[in-house]
Amino acid sequence: MKSFLEFKNVKYFYQTKENEIKALDDVSFSINEKEFTSIVGPSGCGKTTILSLIAGLLFASEGEIILNGKPITKNDGRIGYMFQRDHLFEWRTIWQNITIGLEIQKKDKDPEKLAFAEQLLKKYDLYNFKNKKPRQLSGGMRQRVALIRTLVLEPELLLLDEPFSALDFQTRLKVCDDVYDIIKSEQKTALLVTHDISEALSMSDKIIILTKRPATVKEVIKISFHGQTPLAKREDKEFGKYFEMIWRNLV
Fold this sequence. Notes:
By secondary structure, the chain is α/β, with parallel strands linked by helices.
């Protein structure tokens, strides 16, 4: 299968007042189209740096990053980024929040784009809340709105930077199911960064394990469960074996 996203021998250095710090050291991996991949690794190893490089917010010191056959560019429009917090604007309605990207791109008068935004709201049970303000929604609903806001721009690749970390455990389980269902339904390629091994296991087709800084790829593990949802996968008899395998690679 042809790789959709390719990291080729990527190195990244950043400068402090005292010296130059190597954050990534010869990182190489690939992700296939429509695949859900997670990156795990020790705290501070450079997981979010990798997302920033893919999003075109940072630039590799050495190496290449290729998306669908073309190099990543600054603020690449092919990339959708879902952050740790939903970053919804409290003074705007849900509809105004999900169409803010279209406003920025001067596409908020495009009938096809607006129809697509409306379709997503209806498909994922948020249409009746389109005129509500974010504070009137639950944490899980806010995360769905944040994801739909990203999907409205029709990105080729979704980046998720610990998007469930601000939620309580019970809500987190439900939102994982919701987000996974939306991403799979929309047939998107996704890359999740998380410190939660169970979360990575329950959502991923593949997990990339990084070493401590300067990070390099320690192992790539293909995941296969019988369950169809993240919650169901957590109940698979193989879940514990995968968990231990990944945990041992992190300690």
